[in-house]
Amino acid sequence: MFLEFEDTGKRFGEATENEFEVFKGVNISIENNQFVSILGPSGCGKSTLLSMVAGLEDTSEGTIKLEGQEITGPDPERGMVFQQPSLFPWLTVRENVMFPLKKKRSKKEAEARAEHFLKMVHLSSSSSRYTYELSGGMQQRVAIARALAMDPKVLLMDEPFGALDEQTRHILHRELLSIWEETRKTILFVTHSIQEAIKLSDRVIVMGTRPGRIIADFSIDVPRPRARDDENVIGWEKHVMELLEKEIDKVLKEELDNESVSYN
Ligand SMILES: Nc1ncnc2c1ncn2[C@@H]1O[C@H](COP(=O)(O)OP(=O)(O)OP(=O)(O)O)[C@@H](O)[C@H]1O
């Protein structure tokens, strides 16, 4: 299997009373080239799971393996795109994409590679501009080009379009799908949006919370492009929504119960 979680668990804090278990017993097998989204209520551990694949957080239990190799730290084979693009404002668009490439490649090679990926995200005409001169959507495209230019085996995306307006998000969905079709990178995509997950993914994994765990794993077998009013798309959205609503209601009820205890 390409990317494999085996009985993976995560705890924060020391093994004392302030220890907090985010999730445990997570088992997921992901095939190469798949576009997989992770949905779940706030705090269930979606970003933590992604950070563990990135190697930014360690695993407390079990393993995560990429092509059979256990993940033990960050590596360019796993590229990350965050909600905030975190670009260098003192560098141009091209220089931002070139920056991580310069360690291993000549300047000329890095430049050619940066231009190639900037073209892929439709930004070649802005490559000499500074990133602070760009809109939020354009900045996120630079971040995607920068991650792709490293030629990762897996692209990890943590709510990459969460801060963008609806129209820009729609355009970037189209672009991301066309990039995915061209590069066939395996994508692990965290989102809060059911519509986004159903529109983009081969597979949608739904996490529950308290304790964090996988509660459903769906293959979305609707041909792309997926129109919003396609009855199969609407059917999937409704199905996932009902599942998530139950989970969110459970969290709200627990929070209200806890509050009423602390008031008494
Ligand atoms: N470094 C940390 N130290 C302690 N607890 C943490 C740390 N990072 C995350 N957590 C806790 O782990 C839980 C999961 O957080 P995480 O950000 O992964 O959730 P999420 O599902 O991505 O949430 P959201 O959808 O709101 O972004 C939360 O309760 C959070 O407070």
Query: What is Rg?
Result: 20 Å
Bound ions, cofactors and other small molecules, one mention each: adenosine-5'-triphosphate
Separation, N- and C-terminal Cα atoms: 52 Å
Task: Spell out the helices and strands N to C.
Answer: EEEHEEEHHHEHEHEEH
- What characteristic shape results from the CA principal axes? globular
The whole-number mean of residue pLDDT values reads 93
Tell me the β content.
15-25%
**CATH top level label of the largest domain:** Alpha Beta
How does CATH name the architecture of the largest domain? 3-Layer(aba) Sandwich
Q: At the third CATH level, what is the topology name of the largest domain? A: Rossmann fold
In CATH terms, the superfamily of the largest domain is P-loop containing nucleotide triphosphate hydrolases
Protein name: NitT/TauT family transport system ATP-binding protein
InterPro entries: AAA+_ATPase, ABC_transporter-like_ATP-bd, ABC_transporter-like_CS, ABC_transporter_ATP-bind, P-loop_NTPase
GO molecular function, one term: ATP binding
Domain ABC transporter: 3-234
